[in-house]
Amino acid sequence: MTAPLDHAAPRREATVRRDAEALQVRVRRGSAFQAYAVARRANQTVLDVVTEIQREQDPTLAYRFACRVGMCGSCGMTVNGRPRWTCRTRVAAVAEEGVLTLEPLRNLPVVKDLAVDMEPFFEKWRRAHGYFEPGEAPPEDFAAVLPDSGPRREADAGIECINCGVCYAACDVVSWNPDYLGPAALNRAWTLVNDVRDQGQAARLDAVAGDAGCHSCHSHMSCTEHCPKALAPTFAIAGLKRATGKAALRRLWRKP
C-alpha cells in the first residue's frame, strides 16, 4: 500500500505546477468572452497563443494572419486593451500576471471573433485620394526625385505604412465620429501631397480639408503612440492642416 501512495504524490505536484504555469486567455466572441488555458512557453507570441487555441482546442475560433514576421499587418488585435500586432507581441511583455484578454480591433465591423472587416478603412483611403494621380499625360520616363529634397524627406516616414489599421483602432476621433478619415488615410494623403510627380493635389487637399478630414484631429497622439512601425501620423496630419490652410489662403488671394 505504501508504493502507490509514494507514486501518486509527485503526479499531484506536477499537475499543480502545470496549472500555475498556464496562461489564462479570455477571447471576445460576439458579446461575451470565452476562457481558455494555454501552456506558457519561452519566446511565445500572442499569435502563437491564438494559433494554439484554434488548432488544438477550438477550431471554430476566427482570426487573421499571414506573414507572422511583422510585414503584412493582418494579425492586429486588441491585446489587454491595446491594439497591437500579435505576431510581434511577446506574451511575457503583456501578460506578466498570466492573463491575456484578446478582442478584435476597435472602430471596425467584426466579421467573426477576432477578425474585422477592413473595407471601411480602405474606403477612407479612397475618400482621402490616397492613390497616385499621374495626370492626363504622364511622362514616358521615370521622374527623378532627389532623396535629400524637402518634400521627399517629408514623405520618407509615412511611406513605410503597411495599412495594418492599428492606428485607426487606437484613434478616439474615429470612435466619436465614424466619418473621420482616420490617421492612416491622412498619413497616406500627406505622403502624396509631398510627391512632386503627383497631379491630383487640388482635389486631394479639398478631400482632406472637410469636416471629416485633418482638422477634426484633436492631436491626442494615440495613433503615433500605438503605431507598430513607430511612424507619426499625428505629424503628417499637422502637415495637412498647414497645407490645406495655405491652399485656402491662395484661393482667397486669387479672388478679385
The CATH fourth-level homologous superfamily of the largest domain: Alpha-helical ferredoxin
Mean pLDDT: 89
What amount of the residues lies in strands? 5-15%
| Whole-number total of structural domains | 2
The H-and-E topology, N to C, reads as HEEHEEHEEEHHHHHHHH
Q: How many runs of DSSP E, i.e. beta strands?
A: 7
What best-fitting shape do the alpha-carbon axes yield? elongated
CATH architecture of the largest domain: Orthogonal Bundle
Report the top-level CATH class of the largest domain: Mainly Alpha
The end-to-end distance, rounded to whole angstroms, is: 107 Å
The residue fraction in helices comes out at: 40-55%
Low-confidence stretches at least 5 residues in length (pLDDT < 50)?
1-20
Helix count, DSSP H or I runs of 4 or more residues: 11
Secondary structure class reads alpha+beta
Order of strands across the biggest sheet?
2-1-5-3-4
CATH topology of the largest domain: Fumarate Reductase Iron-sulfur Protein, Chain B, domain 2
Task: Tell me which oligomeric state these chains represent.
Answer: single chain
Would you mind describing this structure in some detail?
InterPro entries: 2Fe-2S_ferredoxin-like_sf (IPR036010), 2Fe-2S_ferredoxin-type (IPR001041), 2Fe2S_fd_BS (IPR006058), 4Fe4S_Fe-S-bd (IPR017896), Beta-grasp_dom_sf (IPR012675), Helical_ferredxn (IPR009051), SDH/FRD_Iron-Sulfur (IPR050573), Succ_DH/fum_Rdtase_Fe-S (IPR004489). One of its GO terms (biological process) is respiratory electron transport chain. It comes from Methylobacterium soli. Keywords: 2Fe-2S, 3Fe-4S, 4Fe-4S, Iron, Iron-sulfur, Metal-binding, Oxidoreductase. With 256 residues, the protein is an alpha+beta fold. The chain folds into 2 domains: 2-116, Beta-grasp domain (Ubiquitin-like (UB roll)); 119-254, Fumarate Reductase Iron-sulfur Protein, Chain B, domain 2, CATH 1.10.1060.10. The chain has 11 helices and 7 strands. It has helices at 2-21, 46-57, 91-94, 119-127, 150-156, 166-170, 172-176, 183-193, 201-208, 222-226, 233-254, and strands at residues 22-29, 32-39, 76-79, 82-85, 99-103, 110-112, 115-116. It has a 5-stranded mixed sheet. A two-stranded antiparallel ribbon has the order 6-7. Strand 3 and strand 4 (82-85) form a beta hairpin. The protein is elongated. The chain starts with a helix and ends with a helix.
